[in-house]
Each structure stands twice: as structure tokens, then as C-alpha cells.
Amino acid sequence: MGYSSSLIQRKFRDIVGRRYESVLKEYSEFLLTEEEVLVPEVRSILVPLDFFVHDITDEAIDVLSAYDATISLAYITDAGVVELLERALNQSSTEEFRAKKEEYGRRLLDRTAAKLKEHGFSTQTRMFVGHKGDDVVQMAKNHDMVALCRRYADGESTDVSISPIVLRICQRVETPALIY
Amino acid sequence: METVALIAIAVFLFTYALIVDERIHRAVAAMLGAAIVVFIGIVPWEALLEYIDFGTIFLLLGMMIIVNTARGSGLFEYIAIRTAKLAKGSPIRVLVLFALVTAVVSAFLDNVTTVLLLTPMLLYIAKVMKLNPIPFLVTEIFASNVGGAATLIGDPPNIMIASSAGITFNEFLIHLGPIMVIDMAILLLMMYLIYGRSMKVSPEKRQEMVRTLNGLDERAAIVDRSLFNKSVAVIGFVVLLFFVHNRIGEILHFILPFVDPAMGLEPAEVALIGAAIILFWSRQSPEEIFEKIEWPALFFFGGLFVIVGALVETGIIANIATVMVENVGSTGEAMFIVAWFAAIASAIVDNIPLTAAMIPLIHDLGATMDVYPLWWSLALGACLGGNGTAIGASANVVVIGIAEREGVGISFVDFLKIGMLVLFVTVAVGLGILWLKFAV
What we know:
By secondary structure, chain A is an alpha/beta fold. Chain A has helices spanning 3-16, 19-28, 34-37, 58-64, 79-88, 91-118, 134-140, 164-172; strands at 44-49, 70-78, 122-130, 145-148, 177-179. Helices cover 78% and strands 0% of the residues of chain B. The two termini of chain B are 39 Å apart. At the A-B interface, α1 and α2 of A face α7 and α23 of B.
């Protein structure tokens, strides 16, 4: 640091004292950081669905419509539940459960895809038996964003809290996550 | 020359050298110098109370209380965001609007606080536009010094001159206001000619900036809506009171007949009344507000007054005045010398200590000539002289200091080149107008 530069810094310290730090703190409350200014490029969005997600909200669609992206809808039936039922019930009951689940899942996927198409989105659908947390984290690696319903993998609770699985997914994915 | 006079000169030069170098805090340097001249009896207690200009100190104190209370409401951040949005993505408009806002706010409130709160916003805008922030920052510095020169309360040299010479707020507005409007127009033209070409941005960048700035919510900057409204009201009232401070008795007499119509209020009284009102009305914790007062600055002023007082006590200022009177032929010549000496010396020493030393000299010149025009020459030179170098005025140091902390280097020499150009043009224009007014 040259003499003039250190002179300016000495004078700055004496004139301003600690006021600059507090000014910066005040500005940081409402000025976007450099990272926030950059609009991420989002080409594909993963939207996981399950028995507890009944719909995709209009507010979520509004946000997603800001991106020109393809939406991948994935209906996941929990592998643990299927395994438990296989052990507890006979073959035909398990098959009946699977068929009903698949029928429900297919209807939900078709309904959601139709709603998204109405808003101009192109969609892909997929249905499988797997792990609701791990599989979403894995699939998110091939997408630019994940949109999660707060009830995903939660149950039929009536409170407004966010499902623990959703929170865990948000902690683990590297892509931006939207909770609706 | 007597030993005490030599000691007074040595203390003065040593203290000013310490202030310029700033290895020791300026307030400590001034207090140390004052302590020496008091300790060896050059300035006795009775004289010390006379030399310390309480008009200046109380005016600064009152305005610091008002500004620090208002700051908590988010008023300055609100102004910064509104100004940024008004520019509509045009870099030139950003430069002009911020310069105008800085000049106007600096004219009525403390320059340091003004630039301290506007500079982060300018750096942010420059970053969004991916433009070199230096043109915006140097224009802000010049605008702050030019705007501050327009009013009695705009810049410490003006406060010191007004308090010592008994000049009113309106006299400042009449004599320096129009000059500063012209200087401001010239300054903007100069900045446009120097930097205009480097400020072209593509329509996409402009759109990006508009989008980013529109995303900022100025209402979010308002931390306390009630305090915000009260701050605006009190600042407005104080500014109004400054306009009529010397005729307040005439106005009050209509409502309160027992008030003497000849009564006037000193600017310091106006500031302290405003401070009392805002503290009472806003219900802010006085402890918190008083903690934010820049006490080092006030002690710096106090120390300077005593050190300069030592020069007066020992007859040095009177001797310099005598030499000056013997060699100066007319008021116009005196105006010329005072303005240019103040301008160039301010750029080197900092305009506050320079003004502190010049005021008693001009008082002494008053024995043989009309010094009224000289006060304006001093105000003009001291305020605009601050533009000359990076250390010429506090606003320069604050803006350049912030820029450096944010990774934007403005070298001393680069600033000197443009600062000296601005200094010479603005002082020459201002002095020309004053000369036509008082010396022709």
C-alpha cells in the first residue's frame, strides 16, 4: 500500500469511524448480492409427486412460468411401504394395492400435466417405486431446479409445516429448490 | 520575535503537519496542540472560552443529532433507491441525478453522512451496469463540495465563517447559492465531456439495470415509517427556520406579542431546537443518538480554535494582516488573494484547519478595509478548494476510502489531475461573479 493510499485509509478511519460498517449492514438488508443479481438459467424443472400431493398450486405455476423450462413430473411410490405390504399381505392383495396406486398416480400425473400444458409448459411424466428422498436428490442432478410441495412424503397432516423429507431434500440438492 | 510567538508558530505548524499526515487521530493532534499552548500559558482560560467558537460546535452538534436520528428511519437509503430508479437505466442520468441529489442534500445536511450513504448505492449501480464506477464517484465528490458551499450549514468552513462573522443563512444563499448553481452546471458539463463517451451501454444492459433496480423496493429501506415522516417534517422545519433565523422575532411577535420583534436566533440555536424537537417527537433513545455524535470531530474543532487562538494571542495573525494590508491595493486584489490562497491551501491542508486559521486574519484586516467581500472569497476558496486533492475535504476521503475498500482504486495523482481542473474552473467562475458583485 503506497503512502497516499494508507493516508486516505487513515483519514477515512478517523472521519468515518465505525459508521461505514453499519451503513453496509443497513444496505445489505435490501440490496441484492452479486450472486442474487445473476438470473440462473433454468431449462428443466423436476416436480416430484406422491399420494400426499394433490395438486400444483397456481402460485407455484406463476413462479415456474418465469422460466422457459420443461417440467418433469415424477410420481414416486415409497419402496419401503410396498416391501412392508408384500411381507404382510398375500400376493394378490399386494398386486391390487400396486394397481390402485398406479392408477391413482397415473391420474394425478395426467391431471397435473394437463394443467401445466394449459399454462404453456412442455411436460414429461414418469412413475416408479423408489425412495422419495434419495431418488429426488439423485434426479435433481439432471435438472436445473426442483419444485417441491410442502406436503410431499409427509402424510395427511393439517398443519402448515413443511415435510421433514422436503427439508432434507432442500439441504442436499445443489440446484435451486422451490417449496410451494 | 518573542519566544512565545515562536512556540505558538511551532505548535501550529506541528499540529497541522500531524493533521495532514493523520498518523495520530486529527482530534488528538488538535487537542495535544491546544494542551501545549494552554499549559505554557499562551492562551489563558478566559481567552480559551472566547477562542472556542461555540456557535460552530453547537451547530454541528445539533445537526449531528438531527441527521443521526433521521438516519435510523432509512431516509437516506430511500433517497438513494428513488434516485437510482429515476435514472431509468441511463448511466448519464445516474451521474447527473446522483450529482444533483448529493449537491442538494449536502447543502442542507452533513456532507460526510450524505456521501457515506450514497456511495454504496453508486457502487452497486456501477456493478449492475458493469461500468467503471470512478466517473460516478468523482462527480459525487465534486457535487458534494459544490452543493455544500451553497448554504451556511452545507460545509464546515461556511459554518465557521458564519458563526464568526455573524453572516445569516439567507446571505449565504444570496451570495453563494447562484454561484454554486452555475458551478454545478459547469461541473456536470465537464464530467459529461470527460466521461460521457465511456458511459455508453447496450440496450440489453440498460434493460438489465432497469430490471434489477425495479426489483429494489424503496419502501423496504424505510425501517421506521413513523420516524421517517417525523424526520422529513423536522428537517423541513429546521431548514425553514434557517431561512428566517435572523427575523424570527418579527414572526413570533405576531403570535406571541411579548416576544421582542428584534430578536433573532443564531444558526446554532436553530440546530439545537431542531435536535430537541426530533428527540422529543421521535421518542428515540437519547443515549443511542448521543453515542452516534461524532465527538472526535467536535474536539477537533475545539482544539483547532485554541491553536489558532495562540497565534492571535501572540500577535502573529495581526502581523500577517499588517503585511497583507501594506501589499494589497484594493478589495478586488484582497478577494483574489484570499480566494486563491484558501483554495490551494485547502487542497493541501484540508479546508477546516485552513478556515480556522484564516478567520482571525480576515477579522484583523477589518481594521483597514471592508472585509465583507473577503468572507465570501474565503468561503468560496475553502469549500471549492476541497475539490483539488483526495484529502482536500472530508467527503473526498470518505468516497475514495469506501471505493478503495470495495476494490475500486482512485489514485492520488488521477484525482489530482481532474480535481485541480475542477478547482480552477469553479473558483475562477465563482470569484469572477463575486468580483463583479463587490469589486466593480
